[in-house]
Amino acid sequence: MTSVGEVHLVGAGPGDPDLLTLRGVEVLRRADVVIYDGLVSAELLRHAPAAAEIVFGGKHDRSRCVAQDELNTLLLAKARAGQRVVRLKGGDPYLFGRGGEEAAALAAAGIPFEVVPGVSSLQAVPACAGIPLTHRELASSVTVVTGHEPPASPAGKLDWAQLARADGTLVVLMGLRNLRAIAATLIAHGRPPDTPAAVISRGTTGRQRTLAGTLASIADRVERASLPAPAVIVVGSVVNLRADLNWFESRPLFGRRVVVTQRSDLAAPVVARLRELGADVLAIPVTRWGPPADGPRLDAAVAGASSFDWILFSHPFAVDRFLARLVETRGDLRALGGARLGAYGPATGERLRAWHLCPAAVAADHKTPLILDAVTRCGAVRGQRFLIVRGDTALEQVPEALTELGAIVEVVAGFGVEPETGAGAAGADLMEHGADWIVFASGLAIEHFHARFDLRSLLARFPSTRLAITTVTIQWALDELGLEPAVVTMPSDLEGLVDAIIQTAPAVKTGAARNESAIA
Q1: Is 78 annotated in the active site?
Q2: Residues of the domain holding 460
Q3: Distance separating alpha carbons of residues 318 and 333, to the nearest angstrom
Q4: pTM of this prediction?
Q5: Residues 128 and 197 in one domain
Q6: pLDDT digits over 390-426, tens only?
Q7: Catalytic position from the list 59, 299, 392, 454
Q8: Sequence-separated contacts (24+) of 56-60 with Cβ below 8 Å
């Protein structure tokens, strides 16, 4: 008989993927099934195992609404099948998230469960808009309510007259659709029309927009700006502090949309840095990496590793694939024998060091002359046996150049490369809204991106979009499309890339970064 599994009700936070708790990451990494809400950042799903079943359970999009009873039934069924289930919910599970209903259903069925609290939009979103909910001189209490139902609705359970009289700060969640009625009701029950009020849309993300005004003016301002949901409404004197405390929207790349096309693990440093500076980052890996088609040939090269004088790696993934296979089949890294190791660029050199190996030659870039220079600085290559481990679609000319110098060269595919064809939410978002920047780290990424999105047509639709490449050696791929990069940096020069994007940014920001904070 299959043992009963368990369910983790995990708060995913308010939108920024970095606000998931450490405990949330831990249980996601061990999940068999992940059932996630529509407001959850899709990037959080990368913490789940590759074999995990991913189920959309969103309810914010009325075209894809999943009934709560269906979700409860699904949770019970997966747990009874012995699976570890993570129910990933926006914000905190127990704050207007129906987590209590799901927990009650699990408890009634005798299913073990855990609640992992999350960072709620209640406090996180106003904080990122420069609005502290309490302040010793302005507000010593906070009241939070749902605005899902109009104040006049028979189904409503709120005493709006009492809310209007209450001191302190009032926070309304899920109330954007009823904003005008909420403001009018508060005024009708005695709140002064000039009470400061703010609406924060898509809070904590690079697409955050904040409109500040008064109870009398805020609905008109929001309607004119077509502010989208989800949004948090804040009413009270603390809104006036935003003018001085608006740190989040003052960052140099706030409001800029940047597409990063590398594989997620390789892109992590640049994605993190761009987000720190306020960018709205769309991670859209366009290349899929896997085992090579000719696995036996790779195994033969691994078996003969100690017979080579040099082993050159073209990419960090080549390092991982080759060495993992070496350890698996030969026991440990000593099977490399006396072979000297070389790397096509600093990132590949760092990956060798991560394996506790010291490369003898690390080229400054992927250019063939630089790779040859790094190798020949270690001595003559004539008569030396070289093994080059690279991708199965590599175009570089290092093997030919070494052969001309008298080396004996063998090339093996350490990994296979093919285009990523899945659309994904980020890809759909890009096609609908465009981006300010697209960053490429390889010529292959440019080719795969073009095959998937038609780069020339995309730039025609969104002419303000600019291209950045992380090495001049891949500019050929843009040249073939008749396109020019606005930024060219050196490999592994993260700060150089980010600084160049900042310096090339337009002087007048658009979209989320417009100054919309004036009280009116």
Answers
A1: no
A2: 257-286+421-504
A3: 15
A4: 0.79
A5: yes
A6: 988 777 789 999 999 999 999 999 888 888 876 577 8
A7: 59
A8: 57/87, 60/229, 60/230
Total structural domains in the chain?
Answer: 4
Which of 359, 331, 127, 142 has its CA nearest to residue 235? Answer: 142
Give the Cα separation of 88 and 431 in Å (integer): 27
Catalytic residue among 37, 280, 365, 436: 37
Cβ contact 239:187 at 8 Å = no
164 token code pair: 């209007």
Helix residue ranges, H only, 65-148: 68-80, 99-108, 121-128
Check 16, 89, 92, 174 and give the catalytic one. Answer: 174
Q: Which helix (H) or strand (E) holds 151?
A: none
Kindly write down the DSSP assignment for every residue of 222-255, as one continuous string: HHHHTPPSSEEEEESGGGGGHHHH--GGGSTTTT
CB atoms within 10 A of CB 416: 18
- The amino acid at residue 55 is V
Given strand 196-201, what is the order of strands in its sheet?
Answer: 142-146, 169-173, 231-235, 196-201, 209-214
Domain of 28, CATH number, reads 3.40.1010.10
Domain of residue 471, CATH code: 3.40.50.10090
- Apex 361 CA angle, 358 and 364, nearest 5: 115
Which two tokens mark 442? 């390889």
Q: What is the DSSP letter of 13?
A: B
How far is CA 46 from each of CA 12, 25, 448, 460, rounded to the nearest angstrom? Answer: 13, 10, 21, 32
**E strand or H helix that includes residue 288:** strand 287-290
The pLDDT tens digits for 177-236 are: 999 999 999 999 999 999 999 999 999 998 999 999 999 999 999 999 999 999 999 999
Domain final position from 388, 416, 444: 416
Peptide bond into 230 cis (omega under 30): yes
Segment 286-295, tens digit of pLDDT = 888 888 888 8
Closest by CA position to 201, among listed 126, 271, 281: 126
Exposure string over 335-351, b if 16+ CB within 10 A, otherwise e: bbeebbbbbbbbbbbeb
CB 168 within 8 A of CB 134: yes
Catalytic annotation present for 37: yes
Cβ-contact 108, 216 below 8 angstroms: no
pLDDT of residue 491: 74
Nearest to 242 by CA among 274, 203, 187, 277: 203
Report residues of the chain scoring pLDDT below 50: 1, 61-63, 507-515, 517-520
136 & 243 share domain: yes
CB 234 within 8 A of CB 197: yes
| Confidence (pLDDT) at 65 | 61
